[in-house]
Amino acid sequence: MTDISPEQIRYLNQIKRHVYIVRTARIFILFGFLILWELAADTGIIDSFIFSSPSKIVRCFREMVSDHTIFFHIWTTLYETIISFLLVTAFSILAAVLLWSSVKLSEILDPYLVVLNSLPKSALAPLLIVWLGANSKTIIVAGMSVAIFGSILNLYTEFKTVDPEKIKLIYTLHGTKRHALTKVILPGSVPAIISNMKVNIGLCLVGVIIGEFLAARNGLGYLIIYSSQVFKMDWLLMSILLLCIMAMGLYALISLAEKWYLKRNNSGIR
Amino acid sequence: MEPVLELSNVNYAYHTMDGETKALNDISFSVAPGEFVAFVGPSGCGKSTLLSILSGLLKTETGQIRVNGKDLKDSTTNIGYMLQHDHLFEWRTIYHNVLLGLEIQHMLTARTRAKAEELLELYGLKPFADSRPSELSGGMRQRAALIRTLVLEPDILLLDEPFSALDYQTRLSVGDDIGQIIRNAHKTALLVTHDLSEAVSLADRVIILTKRPASVARIVPITFSLEDDTPMHRRDAPEFKTYFNLIWKELNKND
Fold this sequence. Notes:
The complex is a heterodimer. Chain A is mainly alpha-helical.
């Protein structure tokens, strides 16, 4: 690249400027908000007992880091979310395969799935506590309950929309329905399965927090409910912040897996 | 010579809630080994149904189909089927797409792998063995699909408008190309097409079907007195036009 026309340089500069503006604005909003919040709390415009302040939240986080309690809470929520996410992924793929393999079964179960999917899952949590006890089993099941029915329906729909001609090809090669599943449906649905996972990880976190609200003695959900009851607003806001970071991190992890898959499959291994 | 394929009084109908649609009506014909037969007929007349029945995807209601003297159900003759679209899987390389049939039939051995590589080499796809289907042109994809069928060593090839998804120019060259490949491999082939010039340039015999329900309207043997009988030369020969018009008239007579 030795000769770049002035028009091309102008175009590149335009793009650079755009990226720069977007980035600066993002950082500006974050810091602007934090500074305003801190100032308003310091000068007494807002009551820092109710609204807390960034410095108080940081101090509170430091304290909990030094006595290690925060790691325990983060780990509990993280572990419950990941377990329920893995179970949802495995179960929903399995269930979608079963539904796909039998038209009769899928037609019979369709109304039940639709009802369960539209039911507000938080209503199930008290029931789960009675049935399973106030322990992490309940919380994992609560996490699953939010994601699983939608996930099954999505994957099943995805499986059904696979080009029937591709399945016909399998039969012309004297394959069976099992071959259609393993050679066409599953490998062809990997992108759909991954984007389904992206939705599920967020939903599982929602379910786990609902579960922890009601039936936990640790975890970020517990911390939120407990701190609101004893009016420790620093704790509450810190927990919400940590939840934001955790949700972002988990989502980013799956996006990374997706990128890895796309790269492996589109660049042609030579 | 004993016919490799023999149909007598074959009937077929599709059933839906709205009623019954008859697709094939009393079809009878036979095909000699190594023969290239083309089927032409009005669109939607049941040409593809016929191939689906021969490949075993659909079961006949009445009538008899004999392959190498045996009933189709009991036949061990290997029948290959090539569809209109290549349906190469994007998540597999060209090489692994070609092996799909072998995988399914549990025939993946060192010998069959070598055979697949040999066919890729023969048809100029060797440099693309590790490419994804989207990196290939339409004609190359269709050739890869043909290799996927040929590597199973079929005795009879069923071709369901295999060139119709290609643009006109590619279609001519790929049609000629694949026609030659099949002829040189001495395969018995049944081609369904709506392109009359394709039928005349490739086939030994053209079977004209009536509109739905399809029955055999006329069978036209095609012979060219050419030294080098290739589809390309056929198009230039004087007989080409005669056959074309003959079939064209027959098709329109049935309207």
